[in-house]
Amino acid sequence: MLQVKNLNITLAGATRDISIVKDVSFELDAGRSLGVVGESGSGKSMTALAVMGLLPGAIRASGSINLAGQELLSLSEQEMCSVRGNKVAMIFQEPMTSLNPVQTIGRQVAEPLTLHKGMTRAAARQEAIRLLDRVGIPDAARRLDVYPHQLSGGQRQRVMIAIALSCSPKVLVADEPTTALDVTVQRQILDLLRELVSETRMALIIISHDLGVIGEMVDEMLVMYGGNVVERGQADKIFSQPAHPYTSRLLEAIPRFGMSRSERLKTIPGTMPEIGSEMKSCIFAGRCDLVCAECLQAPPPFVSVDDAHVAACIKAGRVMETAQ
């Protein structure tokens, strides 16, 4: 369904291009879900924006993004407009800034239907009611004529999902879909996404800082650090036996049920390298307690630790032993 191969994202600088995302590759089949995790600045959202063709003007993507046999990076902006919102759609982090504050909910849900499906305004309005009802908006017909500020945060997020689903996309990208929502609403949104993937067989990409969300929602997982993929594989295997020191430290930092008040959460010392840093070593070397001379000589290759489970670490075996 979706194949991303050797995706590089660069920012044109005054003297040289600055690398933001480097050689990201993954595949995602219909009905499957992929979780992308990592600290802020690791390149997660930039990767998603590249898939959507929404990178800012000075930033360029190269490599390959192939959706059902169509190469997206070779499309013009006009051609991409027929794909975006139709074959691939996105739920953005903050619905209040993504929804148009001066247009009614009904008009915003109906717009993709008139643009991509050629529906009349009356037909699009009826379909908008059905979509809002499907995503759990109460009294959907009456809510068509309200504005975003008149809805709660959870309801606005449901409207974003309705807009994204309006044209039955092949791929849905959800960038932090539960940000700023309370735990009850978060659970409802996640359950809704799970149901929709099961019903429509669309492929789902979830970007999140919350490893708890990723652990229960996705089939496969990408761990990104400093613009690089450092581990890739089935989510259950990565959670049970991480093979990269960064992944292991992220999992150790998750609060555990029953922790005492005096027990401190584990942290990762140091900071991530600045975007565009020219690294001649392992990118995680400065924060890794397993670093050795070989780690400082060159970026490590991917090491296969299991079927379709790889990690960019020469000590992947030792990391896995420690995690057991």
Structure, briefly:
The protein has 324 residues and is an alpha/beta fold. It is built from 12 helices and 12 strands.
Can you walk me through this structure?
By secondary structure, the protein is of the alpha/beta class. 34% of the residues lie in helices and 23% in strands. It is built from twelve helices and twelve strands. It has helices at residues 44-52, 77-83, 95-98, 105-116, 121-134, 140-143, 153-165, 183-200, 211-217, 235-240, 245-252, 316-323; strands spanning 2-12, 17-28, 33-37, 59-67, 70-71, 88-91, 171-175, 203-207, 220-225, 228-234, 303-306, 309-311. The strands form two sheets. The protein has an eight-stranded mixed β-sheet with strand order 6-7-8-3-9-10-12-11, with helices on both faces. Helix 4 crosses helix 5. The longest helix is centred in the middle third of the chain and has 18 residues, at 183-200. It is globular. The two termini are 34 Å apart. The mean pLDDT is 88.
Please tell me how large the radius of gyration is: 21 Å
Main sheet attributes: strand count, strand direction, barrel closure: 8 strands, mixed
The order of strands across the largest sheet is 6-7-8-3-9-10-12-11
Relative helix content: 25-40%
Note the total helix count. 12
Q: Count of DSSP E strands?
A: 12
SSE arrangement, N to C: EEEHEEHEHHHHHEHEHEEHHEEH
Q: CA-to-CA gap between the ends?
A: 34 Å
Mean pLDDT level: 88
Query: Which overall shape is indicated by the principal axes computed on the Cα atoms?
Result: globular
**Class inferred from helices and paired strands:** alpha/beta
- In terms of quaternary structure, the protein is single chain
Uncertain runs are none
Give the percentage of residues in beta strands: 15-25%
